[in-house]
Design goal:
By secondary structure, the chain is an alpha/beta fold. It has a single domain (8-471), classed as TIM Barrel (Alpha-Beta Barrel), CATH 3.20.20. The chain has 14 helices and 17 strands. The strands form five sheets. Strands 7-5-4-3-1-15-14-10-8 form a nine-stranded parallel beta sheet. The chain has a two-stranded antiparallel ribbon with strand order 2-6. Helix 2 packs parallel to helix 4 (103-118), helix 6 (147-163) runs parallel beside helix 8 and helix 8 (206-230) crosses helix 11 (299-305). The protein starts with 7 loop residues before the first strand and ends in a 6-residue tail after the last helix. The structure holds 6-O-phosphono-beta-D-galactopyranose. The site of 6-O-phosphono-beta-D-galactopyranose (BGP) has 14 residues, from loops.
């Protein structure tokens, strides 16, 4: 058997795309709650107030808040060992600035974790997955304000203390490296004070974004340090959007351009979070882009003390980088490059590259040598029900099968892989477009782009396939 017997098979979700109940039981608005729906063609908007004539998909999402028991039972039926989910910061601290937490919010996650436990499922919790309290954007321009570190620490201490016996795997920030790209300003750094408009047209303030990222690094390190001091049984991880790029041609200019791209997009954040210091190549990048990070005495020490125990990644696609003119750009989750002639794309233009996963896992392990976990992977696709009323998603099965095969190859290569939680195990709202039509799940949810649907759940063909995969510990694909 290639994979270890305690391999963490499961699935992944994020509160803002999944829970709904956006203003129920004292919850406050997060940045994601201020985002309207969009599509592959029409970008979603972020607004400064809620407009009655627009649709905000996170507000109901697929209502995990009221369906969690049934949903977790379905995960258990597939044999999940692990469920990656996030805690909605604004359920616990509605504006991020309260001194006391919202008890009703805390009780909800008690119920969720207890339910996981009853089914023998280990929760893997992302502390902040695109759910920054919107009040912190209004007050501090999001993470650009150093004050937000204290707000975050109050939140972390509250949930660590409360759930110390229920959760042991934690990830500090989802796809922290999206902050390196302009789009990350909306979902991650929240450096969009006063901005209303399409999410892809936010005036880019690099200085604010990188200063915000510095604060996120500190916050992550402080959370790890606190956990280590108080709860040594916790496993603390980072979460990186690993969208590898290849040089399009062997032209040394392309090779260098690709190296620089890889450095700043996929390596930069994990170099800080795993190695505990800014990498050597950051200085030149900052100089050439007019970025000056304000550091305070002690910051370097905090980064050094707060390095993570394990590395996690999302992996969907790869792209190419070239210095040559006229190449076709590819779509992608925040990071994009140009089209690779050897690869096919999903309906949303994300280039499918299973072997790139083996390559990426090897590259990461060679660099850091710590345990790793693939905490997102999957195919966003249009699903239609067949005559028998079931979604026959052979395309999704093919995608996942090929990625699992390559993951196993990486393990044979010697990579230390802890688990695999494909994205959106139950259909949920798309992060990039706000659509429902872009589905990833093993479980279909009757909810549609116009907001209609009775929210009922149905097993897709991939549900039964994945159950067998887990049962056979990845031997039967
Ligand atoms: C990652 C995010 C997830 C998720 C996924 C799929 O970037 O961490 O939140 O949504 O991508 O992306 P999308 O929903 O845009 O298809």
């Amino acid at each position: 058997m290639v994979l270890s017997k305690d391999f963490l098979w499961g699935g992944a979700t994020a509160a803002n795309q999944f829970e709904g109940a956006w203003d129920v039981d004292g919850k406050g608005p997060s940045v994601s709650d201020m985002c309207t729906n969009g599509s592959a063609k029409e970008p979603k908007w972020v607004t400064t107030s809620i407009h009655a004539d627009r649709l905000y998909p996170s507000h109901e999402a697929v209502d995990f808040y009221h369906h969690y028991e049934g949903d977790i039972a379905l995960m258990a039926e597939m044999g999940f060992k692990c469920f990656r989910m996030s805690i909605n910061w604004t359920r616990i601290f509605p504006t991020g600035m309260e001194s006391e937490p919202n008890e009703k919010g805390l009780e909800f996650y008690d119920r969720v974790f207890d339910c996981c436990k009853q089914h023998g499922i280990e929760p893997l919790v992302t502390i902040s997955h695109y759910e920054l309290p919107y009040a912190l954007v209004e007050k501090y321009n999001g993470w650009a304000g150093r004050e937000v570190i204290d707000c975050f620490m109050r939140y972390c201490k509250t949930i660590f203390d409360r759930y110390q016996h229920k959760v042991k795997y934690w990830l500090t920030f989802n796809e922290i490296n999206s902050s390196v790209m302009p789009l990350g300003a909306v979902l991650n750094t929240g450096t969009i004070q006063g901005y209303e408009g399409p999410v892809n047209q936010v005036p880019d303030d690099k200085q604010a974004r990188f200063q915000a990222l510095h604060h996120m690094f500190l916050a992550s390190a402080l959370a790890v340090r606190y956990a280590r001091e108080h709860y040594p049984h916790f496993h603390m991880g980072n979460m990186n959007l690993f969208s590898a790029s290849y040089p399009l041609t062997p032209d040394p200019d392309d090779v260098l351009a690709n190296q620089q791209n890889m450095n700043m997009t996929v390596w930069f954040c994990s170099d800080v979070q795993v190695r505990g210091a800014y990498p050597y190549y950051a200085d030149r990048y900052f100089r050439e882009h007019g970025i000056e990070i304000q550091m305070e005495p002690g910051d370097a020490e905090i980064l050094k003390q707060g390095t993570v125990d394990f590395y996690t990644l999302s992996y969907y696609m790869t792209s190419c980088i070239t210095t040559h003119e006229g190449m076709e750009a590819t779509a992608g989750n925040i990071i994009a490059g140009c089209t690779n002639p050897y690869l096919k794309s999903s309906d949303w233009g994300w280039q499918i590259d299973p072997k790139g996963l083996r390559y990426s896992l090897n590259e990461i392990y060679a660099r850091y040598g710590i345990p790793m976990m693939v905490v997102e992977n999957g195919l966003g696709a249009y699903d239609e029900k067949g005559e028998d009323g079931m979604v026959h998603d052979s395309y999704r099965i093919d995608y996942l099968r090929q990625h699992i095969e390559q993951m196993k190859e990486a393990v044979k290569d010697g990579v230390d892989l802890m688990g695999y939680t494909p994205w959106g195990c139950i259909d949920l709202v798309s992060a990039s477009t706000g659509e429902m039509a872009k589905r990833y799940g093993f479980i279909y949810v009757n909810k549609f782009d116009d907001g209609t649907g009775d929210l009922s759940r149905e097993r897709k063909e991939s549900f039964f396939w994945y159950k067998k995969v887990i049962e056979s510990n990845g031997e039967e694909l």
